[in-house]
Amino acid sequence: MPDKGPNNGNDGTPPRRDTGGVQSLRRAFELVECLADAGGEAGLSELAAASGLPMPTIHRLVRTLVGLGYVRQNSNRRYALGTRLIRLGEHASLQFGTWARPLLAELVDELGETANLAVLERDEVVYVAQVPSRHSMRMFTEVGRRLLPHGTGVGKAMLASLPTSDVRELLRRTGMPAYTQHTHTDPETLLRHLAEIAEQGYALDEAEQELGVRCVAVVVPGAPVPAAVSVSGPEGRLTKDAVAQIAPVVRRIAGTLSGALRTEPR
Which CATH number fits domain 21-82: 3.20.20.70, 3.90.650.10, 1.10.10.10, 3.30.1390.10? Predict the structure, then answer.
């Protein structure tokens, strides 16, 4: 069947066919995204309902993805995201950080404190970019570090953007260990705190991960994975009064990053 796009053969060139490899590639990625949207695991009937593809097509594509290691079949005959995607995701996260680094540099130039970008990956916060402050203080966080989200500003900003049921399930899987005496360790208390974060538009890490350090974090709306931008520094400089000035700047940079993601060619 001729392609319904601009090249339909009317300009003298052969028409493209919907049955070509590009369509198969697109459909394969759609199935992978359907699995991700389903929480990482789904049955064939669920994939058919979510994708709108015919069952024979899904069978063929899933068999190919399983053979390549991007999808696996569990013992319950449901399909899940494969471990080969882990390496791709890690490298993609780092590239995201490289791409966002100039915006973090803007934060440092304007505020003088360390700026970070983190994503939520496999129940953990992963720092994918950092621009250090002009001051000599060494920060606990660094690119590549993985932490549980309940004890970080960026983690709480991301959790506050997720459905409550998803947050409960994540906390059940990870637990809530205390990093300092200020870390939230009760799920219900944290959930109430997350509602406040969603209302005010930014999260604070009040020495919950590292004593003496305060962090202001804002979620990046519309990012392909949960992501947040933050500014961190010693409590002596990031006072409560300073936070009131810092939060709008961090929110602006997060919005700029979100807008750039939306206009990126797909």
Answer: 1.10.10.10
